[in-house]
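User: Before I run my own analysis I want an independent prediction to cross-check against. Here's the chain; please return only the structure tokens and, at the end, one sentence I can use as a sanity check.
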Amino acid sequence: MQQIGFGGGCHWCTEAVFASLRGVERVRQGWIASTLEEANTFSEAVIVTFDKKAISLETLIEIHLHTHNATSNHTLRKKYRSAIYTFDNTQQRKAQSILEQQQKSFDKPLVTRVYPFGRFRENSERYLNYYHNNPHLPFCQTRIEPKLKILFDKYAEYAIVAAKKD
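Assistant: Structure tokens:
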């Protein structure tokens, strides 16, 4: 198993997307900070534990970029940093290369950055697995459902069918 961190939008949304993928063993939801000064404050994110034989790092990064607004440098980017957090130098180089290749799929420049993982703070128990526990709440319907629709429409071969809501 390998680990990678992702930050983009709300960690509830990011958790729901990655928890809906085959080959993902675990998704830890909370806040991540990097060791680098420009990203050493906590930002909403998840740590994804995955089986690289079942789903590749490239696929995970592609899904991440397409399920949050990876080209918008809005005013809340400190809280919702568009990021890939890596756990070693080899993974960092590979993630950076994948990010550069993925830029071709977007009309605007990606604001997503690759950072070395620093620290993690898990969310409180009541907010973990938020979408699964609260699929009918307005936030889940308006914010998370559209991301899951992208996942099921564009990446159906990786999606866990049971996670799709009608």
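Sanity check: The chain has five helices and five strands.
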